[in-house]
Amino acid sequence: MGTSSSFDAHRDGDHACASKELLSSHSLCILRSRDEILMHNSGLRKRQKLSQADVAKLIGINGDAYGRYERNDVKPTIEMATKIANALKISLDYLVGKTELELDNSMLKRVEAVSKMTEKDKEHVFSLLDAFIAKSQFQGFLS
């Protein structure tokens, strides 16, 4: 772990991350609080109908070790957190609480494909998307 002398602490509400500690230990800086991580990770896993043992097998560890990550008894390394995010088919940013926007891998691939289009093609995609969003919002208003 990092030393207690002069490190940069970044705060976001109740969340803190010590930069030097993060760099020296290769641990992942978790932006969510301890209870939020537990509920968040187990909720993601359960929505996909996966057990702790299932996720553990996908990331190459045993179920007890994964359970410690999910309970936040142990912080995963960046590499392990990436494996967890990939197993749950979500972004690493969503897993650690950097964003509340849940983008699964299929959505991310679509966004990447659109980002590679010409500006004219992007305009067409965005026009269609805007029309569907407006339609959905209108239908929600009528309900």
Offer a quick outline of the entry.
This protein has 143 residues and is mostly helical. The protein contains eight helices and two strands, in the order E-E-H-H-H-H-H-H-H-H. Strands 1-2 form a two-stranded antiparallel sheet.
Attribute tags:
single chain; disordered N terminus; elongated; mainly alpha; 434 Repressor (Amino-terminal Domain); 2 strands; 143 residues; 2 domains; 6% strand; 8 helices; two-stranded antiparallel ribbon
Can you offer a commentary on this structure?
It is a single chain. This protein folds into two domains: 9-96, 434 Repressor (Amino-terminal Domain); 105-142. It has eight helices and two strands. The chain has helices spanning 19-25, 34-47, 52-59, 63-70, 78-88, 92-96, 105-115, 119-142; strands at 9-12, 15-18. Strand 1 (9-12) and strand 2 (15-18) form a beta hairpin. The relative contact order is 0.09. Residues 1-31 and 34-39 have low confidence and may be disordered.
